[in-house]
Amino acid sequence: MFKIPVKAVCCIFKINTLVARNSRKRKLFFILKPISDIHKVHLLTIVFCTLVFSLVSLTSRGQYWQKDTLATSKGNLEIEVVGHCFLHFTFNRMNIYVDPIPNVADMTRLPKADLILVTHDHRDHLNTDAIEYLSKPGTMVIASKSCIQKMNFGHFLDNGMQITYNDIYIKAVAAYNVINLRPDDIPFHPKGDGNGYFMVFGDKTVYISGDTEYIDEMRTFMKPDAAFVTIMMPFTMDEHMFIQTVKKLKPKILYPLYYNIDIKSLVEKLSADMPEMKIRVPY
Q1: CA distances (Å), 161 to each of 37, 170, 174, in order?
Q2: What does DSSP assign to residue 6?
Q3: If DSSP states are collapsed to H, E and C, what string results for 208-237?
């Protein structure tokens, strides 16, 4: 492969890809930022890897648009699953986002945010470019402490902390691994690094699990009307943990997020055990 020596490179750029989805058309947007301290650059490799990442993002199963409207005592709550972990709530003319990331949405079609929640600092959940793009003057950003340390802006909530934003009650809850570990025996998601969130809109409660396994703290969690629960081994839950979590929470509407299992089989099992629960899964 042709190598470009550092001396011959006047300016090298880091490419962050924003993949747009407009009906049946998808467009690529590029944000260019200078990279410093590069000693040897294989430019063609960088471009190739970027294109491969973009194609993977375009074909990801996590990309879908699922919308629901939940009536609350203080007005309708509109729920939209943008893709992967990226959620959009609309309530009393406020736009609330959870874990906004590029590559799964046409960012230009989304309204600016009043409130943004970030669960943890992994790059498929925390993307400062997406946060800054969706923000406007006065946007509140709430995240775990590990996120705030990387972003250098926003308000942090530790597990157990709570806040009220314009009549929306928000509580950060535990989200971590106990069983699933990296090769160095450190959990993929250490306890205290990330948050799950409960949000209360009027008389309706929404739970966002973040990246977590089934954990002891869930025994005291609120019973949500809608629950967004992750299932992806080895990083979050396996099928057994997922079913255990759902049966403990008993949500009225369940949204499985970024699964890498036979989701149809799982839905059949849950529907047989909990027929009153609605399960939102795009096939």
Answers
A1: 40, 9, 10
A2: G
A3: ECCCCCCCHHHHHCCCCCEEEEECCCCCCC
Residue 163: helix, strand or coil by DSSP? Answer: strand
pLDDT value at position 35?
A: 47
The rounded Cα 173 to chain-centroid distance in angstroms is 15
Whole-number pLDDT of residue 202: 97
Taking the model in full, what pTM does it have? 0.74
Beta carbons of 107 and 130 less than 8 angstroms apart: yes
What SS3 class is residue 7? helix
Domains of the chain (ranges; CATH) run 6-58 (no CATH), 65-279 (3.60.15.10)
Neighbours of 106 (CB within 10 A): 17
Q: Tell me the helices (H) and strands (E) count for the chain, helix number first.
A: 5, 16
The enclosing H or E element of 70 equals strand 63-72
For the four alpha carbons of 91, 94, 95 and 98, in that order, the dihedral sign comes to negative
What is the per-residue pLDDT for 67? Answer: 84
142-162 pLDDT per residue, tens: 998 888 888 888 899 999 999
